[in-house]
Amino acid sequence: MRSADYFNYLPENAMCAAWGCTAMSTGHTRIPPGSDYPPVRHPDDHHFIWEKGRTLQAYQFALISEGRGRFQSAPYPDRVHAVEAGDVLLLFPGVWHRFAPDAETGWVESWIECRGPTFDRVMDMGLNLLEEPVWRAGKVAEAIFDTVHHLAQEDALLNQPALSTLGLQLLAHLCQSRDMAERGRDRLIEQVRRTLMEKSGDSPALETIARDLGLSYSTLRRLFRQHAGMSLKQYQSEVRIRRACELLRNSDKSVKEIGGYLGYSSAFHFSAQFRKSTGLPPSQWRIKNRIRMI
Model pTM? Predict the structure, then answer.
């Protein structure tokens, strides 16, 4: 990573606009420990004070390659994100934010600011970018920013089209990483569903399932509701009712035995939950739906 401080602000460019991304600004600066932040050397629409924060009119990737600090942004302005070396801060047009290095470490920041419909379309892809505005990009982003700095310091205006494609490269890597994370969450939710279905007779504690997956119970509940559209307990209840229907239809177990097998505290509790879900008490449902051998 280059050590010389610089920044460039660039005009609109028809060639860049044709492929949906125009690099509008690039820069690199080292903030020594104990320094005032931010340094007063940018245009008014980019400078900010900590108490007020700021909003930009474009998208920005801001790589922190050394040091650590903190970051806050809408729509959850009270949430403080810890920032470490290798993190990329994601800034969005019209979205309030503020960030600062730790006074003990300072930090080294690099940025590229882009505008264009390609970025706008990505915002509609459901990748939770606003909710998770820190990208743990590491060496992927550092390699791209090395090229950004080389081109920008060589001749930023002449190299604006190439800089714009580097903005697209960062966007592509970001989307790929978030999509992989989303698929990982999908697999996790499917694993929870499978566990609840396979162990419906064991009535596994939801807290135990969370622990086995390496998650807190609150995190598992939140992820499950986001992906399944219902609470974890509601899904567990539905699984148990479906299993109860199978047993009522295909076995000779009594209502009390089925309720106990599925982990209900009593036959009364089982009957009440079953009736609430199906509209019939278990005994009547069995009569109506029992498979008869001919």
Answer: 0.64
Residues 6+ apart with CB under 8 A from 282: 244, 248, 255, 258, 270, 271, 274, 275
User: How far apart are the C-alpha atoms of 41 and 152, rounded to whole Å?
Assistant: 18
| pLDDT at residue 181 greater than cutoff 70 | no
- With respect to residue 113, please indicate whether it lies within any of the assigned structural domains: yes
Phi-psi region of 115 (alpha: psi -120 to 50; beta: other; left: phi over 0): beta
220 shares a domain with 173: no
Catalogue the long-range contacts made by 31-38 (C-beta closer than 8 Å, 24 or more residues apart): 31/67, 31/101, 31/106, 31/107, 31/108, 31/109, 32/106, 33/103, 33/104, 33/105, 33/106, 34/103, 34/106, 35/101, 35/106, 37/100, 37/101, 38/100
Q: Are residues 191 and 282 located together in one domain of the fold?
A: no
Q: What is the pLDDT of residue 205?
A: 75
Instruction: Please report, rounded to a whole number, the percentage of residues in the chain having pLDDT higher than 90.
Output: 55
Mark whether 60 and 96 lie in a shared domain: yes
Say whether pLDDT at 225 is over 70: yes
- Is there a single domain that holds both residue 85 and residue 167? yes
Which structural domain, as residue segments, surrounds residue 283?
Answer: 233-289
Q: Are residues 202 and 94 located together in one domain of the fold?
A: no
Q: For the residues 242-253, what does the mean pLDDT come to?
A: 90
pLDDT value at 294 more than 50: no
Closest to 185 in 3D by CA, of 234, 127, 236? 127
For 288, residues 6+ apart whose C-beta sits below 8 A from its C-beta are: 280
Same domain, 76 and 159: yes
Tell me the CATH number at 51: 2.60.120.10
pLDDT digits (tens, 9 = 90+) for 7-45: 999 999 999 999 899 999 999 999 999 998 887 766 666
* Radius of gyration (C-alpha) of the chain in whole angstroms: 27
Side-chain-facing half-sphere of 279: CA atoms under 13 Å: 1
Contact criterion met (CB below 8 Å) for 119 and 56: no
